[in-house]
Amino acid sequence: MSDEDLRHVFEPYRTGQKHNERGTGLGLYISKGIAEAHGGHIEVDSEPGKGSHFALVVPLAANRQDTNRPRP
């Protein structure tokens, strides 16, 4: 992705500059909202012509109770 694309990648209705890309441009926007709603964020690293890497980072809950786990 170009530096210009990286600046706008999480905006709604943004798609890549390539004419053959398809989609609504909402996926990364929605993903960012979900990450932030859980106290996290999304990191992106991109090298033009080589590809991009996205990482979803969310904190672990301190006192999480797993309701699917059998009780002793």
TrEMBL record:
Its EC number is 2.7.13.3. This is histidine kinase. Residues 1-24 are annotated as: Disordered. It catalyses: ATP + protein L-histidine = ADP + protein N-phospho-L-histidine. InterPro entries: HATPase_C_sf, HATPase_dom, His_kinase_dom, Sensor_HK_Regulatory, Sig_transdc_His_kin-like_C. Residues 1-11 have a biased composition (Basic and acidic residues). It comes from Alkalilimnicola ehrlichii. Pfam families: HATPase_c. Residues 1-62 form the Histidine kinase domain. The keyword Transcription does not apply. Keywords: Kinase, Transferase, Two-component regulatory system. One of its GO terms (molecular function) is protein histidine kinase activity. The keyword Kinase applies. GO terms for biological process: phosphorelay signal transduction system. It is an enzyme of class 2 (transferase). Coiled coil: none annotated. Gene3D superfamilies: Histidine kinase-like ATPase, C-terminal domain (3.30.565.10).
